[in-house]
Specification:
single chain; 107 residues; mainly beta; SH3 type barrels; six-stranded antiparallel sheet; 0% helix; elongated
Amino acid sequence: MIVKQKLRKGDTVIVITGKDKGKTGEIFKMFPAEGKVIISGVNMVKKHKKPSKDSAGGIVEMESKMRISKIAYCEDGKATKVAFKVDETGNKVRVAKKTGNVIVDKK
């Protein structure tokens, strides 16, 4: 089941549970059907890669997928919830609940 996501690619988020609790990073890739995201510099795992004609083999450290329920939008270094509101021009915008600031989408 796909649910409307309040977080988007490029958002700065903070991990609220798990081994990386307290770390912040930017959403690098989203998997809405799975309810997971990849965050740059967070949830690092070691993968054993076979050598190929393009690259040498060895142990490579890379980011792994993380459930969306384990992260929260980060504003001023603190976690906050995200809400939707309609602004003066009639557009639907995302708003940080703690401060009431409009979240500008990075494209």
